Amino acid sequence: MSRSFSRWLLRAASLLLCLLFWQFAANGHWDLGLVTFANVPTPLAVVQAALGLGDSGNLARHLGSSLGRVFAGYGAALSIGVALGLAIGRSKWAEDLLLPPLEVLRPIPAVAWIPLAILMFPSSELSMVFITFTGALFPILLNTVHGVEGVDRRLIASAKSLGAGRRAILLEVILPGAAPSIITGLAIGMGTSWFCLVTAEMIAGQYGIGYYTWASYTVQNYADIVVGMLLIGVLGMGSSLLIKRLGGLFTPWHRPRGKA
Description:
This protein has helices at about 5-25, 45-55, 60-90, 90-105, 110-120, 125-150, 155-160, 165-205, 210-220, 220-250. Helix 3 (about 60-90) runs antiparallel to helix 4 and helix 5 (about 110-120) packs across helix 8 (about 165-205). The protein has ten helices and no strands. It is globular and about 70 Å long. The longest helix is centred in the C-terminal third of the chain and has 39 residues, at about 165-205. It has a domain at about 60-150 and about 180-250.
């Protein structure tokens, strides 16, 4: 049995154990003291709710709304976060000018931005995209700064000694050296953008996975709540994995250290 197959088998067994625990706990209405499963739907009820969502014809509209908002906000965060990160990482003047206000804004949670975003933007759609943007911006920005500052200064000095200009140093030394850290920030930013989007959709949305989850809660459709949660998890995991895979294609020189 190959090592790769053994790892996939272990992962499948882990998921199966979680499903079995969920089934027994929900079906038996377990009460564990701090946690109770009395009102938690069984996996079969969740599957039936998911099939019902698919048959209703609303699944594509919910998915399309959420994906459009996520990738619009994420795309803006990618462009601005990487650009600001390169500037802050390379210039002490830019660091002193830009980093203090960004550090003040960074701890503010997404839900706190929602009232101001609704006031700032003419439509709820733009306000939700902005919330997604704020969630993705800071992981991308900080990882870019970390990656740029971590580039070996001897490589930059060697490039200068060979006659490389600022543009060549940026494109051929700084960006390749910082790329692994930037890709990590992009993957983290994708996950946080989903988290922030769902928060925004619960308050300001009309369609979307977050709106569907919150609407299911208000009418006490517990199985539909879990369907929404699982959709968010799968979409977030899948999009983050996609970013990592694309990052691996663009950085063939970088290979993470193997695990024992």
